[in-house]
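User: DNA polymerase IV. Structure?
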Amino acid sequence: MTNDEGSERPRKIVHVDMDAFYASVEQRDNPELRGLPVAVGYPAARGVVAAASYEARRFGVHSAMPSVTAKRKCPDLVFVRPRFDVYKAVSLQIRAIFAEYTPMIEPLSLDEAYLDVTENLKGMEIATEIAAEIRAKIKQVTGLNASAGISYNKFLAKMASDLNKPNGQAVITPKNGPAFVEQLPIKKFHGVGPATAEKMHRLGIETGADLKEKSFEFLVEHFGKSGPYFYGIARGIDNREIKPNRVRKSVGAEDTFSEDIHAFEPAREGLQPLMEKVWGYCEANEIGAKTVTLKVKYADFTQITRSKTVAAPLQTISNLEEVVGLLLAPIFPPRKGIRLLGVSLSSLERQTSGVAPQLRLAL
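Assistant: Predicted structure:
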């Protein structure tokens, strides 16, 4: 396997990302929704937007936004109940198209995946042509648009897929990679969330060039195990392999809030997009989970975790929401404000059933 640093034959990595996937499926299946600002989710007081159409995004509506805020930004917003069984079925159609080109597929969620097409089943040499063909076939089979990024590693392929969205693709070559990273604002880096971006800002790191100036030791000191990753990507280097069919030990997501949380409902609301993210990963990879862990970090940076293990793998996202609710309720009222919440799934195992579970999202 070649690496990123001056190797004779760089890898050819494609990141495929469906455009406004859930919302686009709803607009495809209901012509009356086409051209309208659509949010997948529930308009209830504690509802959260699971996905927003591009028409809605023009008003500033985006996923993980409280439904009340979304409606305020876009009074004509149309809410549609999520149909995860349909999204899973479409995702499997898309996965089948990927498999025509390469077995090296690493799904990230129902709507995005990495492909390694360095060696591919079609014998095609040009990765941009493979990406264009895949996108055309997705459109033909599903009626949906996909965007793609092509590069020599995962980080840059992911960055490239955002450059010409929606319904476009972009390539970042080994020659252009380091310069692209240097000019990139740090808040746009994949793997750098709002809390990390704020920490980097405090350290004087605003762009890739600023990040590149920091030593390996400095980055490890301030960012721990993420330090080596940041040191590499600042130089356009990311040697992570595409890992098909992997079962991780755990999958998690967390979020730091702009204002401390003191009540149950805002906490439950903040956890919803995190649950959707981890559940989406498990669905896309056909993985079941039996252990749910809730992480709570308080305003004074002390933290607790609470876990529950069930006898059989969770079957629906509603099951996950129920368990998280049981873990969350006893910590209220909290002794201090809550600044971060996280949810992770472990005791993971491959699901062998070929039947897509009927998923329902209760917001």
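Residues 264-284 form the longest helix (21 residues). The domain at 21-83 is CATH 3.40.1170.60 (MutS, DNA mismatch repair protein, domain I).
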